[in-house]
Amino acid sequence: MSKLRLATLWLDGCSGCHMSLLDTDERLLELAAQMDIVYSPLVDTKQFPERVDVVCIEGAVSTEEDEARLRLVRQRSGLLIAMGDCAVTGNVPAMRNPLGAEAMLRAVYRESPVLAPQIPIEDLPRLHGHALPLHRFVPVDLFIPGCPPAADTLFAALAALIAGTADGLRLDTRFGA
Amino acid sequence: MSAPILTLTIDGRQVSGLASETVLQVAKENGIAIPTLCFLEGLSATGACRLCMVEIEGSPRLHPACVTPIQEGMTVTTDSKRLFGYRRAIVQLLFSERNHVCAVCVANGHCELQELARAFGIDHIAFPCRHPALEVDASHSRFVLDHNRCVLCTRCVRVCGEIEGAHTWDVKNRGIRIQIVADLDTPWGAAATCTGCGKCVHVCPTGALAEKGKSMAEMRQKRPFLPYLVANRAEERK
To answer: Would the CB atoms of B128 and A176 count as touching at under 8 Å?
Structure first.
């Protein structure tokens, strides 16, 4: 049997969900025996592969670039997992939403006491007005709330996917867990 | 003179209760759990959150169990696919209405809204969130009111009026614009009627009311004080 092809994507999040994935510790070896991580901030691949079986996405969609990457990844992935509260609800990145992107940038880069107040724009993707969860843009197959979801929760989800028992999977987690 | 005893059917079980009791009370006495949010033992019931809605045979609409008196021979269903769907929708709408960020909330892990979502298996909010710009009133010396986390259950309004007798809290506006206000919409710290007793803080189901200085997940509400105070009141009135 060929190994499951797993990708992970990091959008507007703190990387805590990826850290939680690493926190599965020695169980990573169990996972590695049954899946190949073909694209991730944790590996060196630069381009998202043409086809993956499962993608775990951390972070909210906050920029045009985030949205474009999400749409591409959705096309190329079998199963899409919203990993953690930012991907599921917007969470902390969405705390700027009541203010709007422009006002938030002004408050952080111009109105606070800094040496040369300027809003950074060069080589940076433009912010969307709102930071939003993945399912506002593309269909999501599995939601894993938690900030971050516990290593046990992520392992349970991936193990269920490998075993083919992910349908109707009820994970022991919650918003803010 | 005590109220007459009535018999009724809840979830297929024959039960009985006093005519003065509600469907919620009789269900609870018989070990039948109906989800609630605005209801709190010891305070008057208002039927604000609609989570305790039940089906009553012969009625096309749903009825809030916390304010529906029992009737002889009534047949009540407290759980069905339809009710579960509505309850899930209500909890998701509460999340979508204001800015609930569990991960950084003072009540994380001690929040009734968060717990309802977990209990109902709500793993995302199907509705678009409104992200309203709401204020945090930190003008009081010991407490904070964060409108972002408020679910408008009015427990604070009721405990302040009914138990403390101060009636500092009330509600302004209608519909989506509703907000909790102190006195005649003054900053909490300037509210002349507030005794600073903190009862409102401890009945709040979410992190909307909290003690100052509490950080993420540190606000633990002490709810069991309420039946004790209510019992004492009853003694005094005798």
So the answer is: no
CA proximity to B17, closest of B78, B71, B79: B71
CB contact under 8 A, B123 and A143: yes
Domains of chain B: 5-79 (3.10.20.740), 96-237 (3.30.70.20)
Given A95, A130, A133, which is nearest B124 (Cβ)? A133
The pTM score is: 0.94
In order of their start, the domains of chain A are 4-95+127-163 (3.40.50.700)
Q: Give residue-wise pLDDT tens across range B147-158.
A: 999 999 999 999
**Cβ contact B45:B22 at 8 Å:** yes
A24 token code pair: 């599965």
What ranges make up the beta strands (E) of chain B? 5-10, 13-18, 53-56, 62-64, 75-77, 136-137, 143-146, 169-172, 179-182, 209-211
Considering CB atoms only, which of A98, A140, A170 is closest to B131?
Answer: A98
